[in-house]
Amino acid sequence: MRSLLGKQPVGTAFVVPYVVFLAAVFAYPLGFAVYMSFHDYFFAAPGAIVERPFVGFDKYAAVLSDPAVRRSFGNVGIFLLINVPLTVVLSLLLATALNTAIRWRTFFRVSYYVPYVTASVAVVGVWLFLFNSNGLVNSVLGPLAPDPSWLVNSKLAMPTVALFVTWKQLGFFILLYLAALQNVSKDLYEAASMDGASRVKSFWNVTVPGVRPATTLVVLLATVTGANLFTEPYLLTGGGGPDGASASPVLIMYQRGIEQGNPDVGSAIGVLLVVAVLLLALLQRRLLERES
Questions:
Q1: pTM of this structure
Q2: What pLDDT, on a 0 to 100 scale, did the predictor assign at position 289?
Q3: Collapsing DSSP states into helix, strand and coil, what is residue 54?
């Protein structure tokens, strides 16, 4: 038994359940998705004997030639260009403000975290009320309001979704930065103050370098989360509208694989998305590490 568990049997015993969980929830579904993407796979009745021939890269060729799929990857690229920088900047600024001795600090910390733990379905209705053609935002803007309105405008639908996701997830990333700010020595701020540095210079030269590891984590998490966008465009724009302007790869994967009954095509989209996210995350990590 000891030879099976290794030199640290207690540690191995605690790790094994999580390894089994990862294998069952992540590794097996991903491997099965890769298998389906290389076969002519379809749903069949339980117990039915069916042939699912190997088709090579035919499904990937069909996916890459599909305009809706290509547009969905472009849409998620627009989403990430808006969401990731906004997430990093706003969460760092708000975390820095909430880390200082201000009145009602605990109240504000909880307030920013509430949207993150609230179900998307519960808050989508508020945003639909705010951004519809007769909503509060258009009433405030008056003649400056866009026509067509935000969520039915092909150019503004995805940016509006990006703003919603940024607002909803901001509390989680603020907590990450708050934890990182606890490790920035106060002596550095005192030294900067003695050298005559203003608050802006202290923030730029002390805070930003001090939380750089957290920034790397925030960028990676925001990218991975954003690339798996599904719930928000599904609820806010009625399934990726208008005319696919807010459709994401995961949404297209759901429509092709589940609604239209083509799990092999949906799996091919999913595998391409996994590869794209891994490459993007690796590139971001290399760039951030080079800057540090």
A1: 0.88
A2: 74
A3: strand
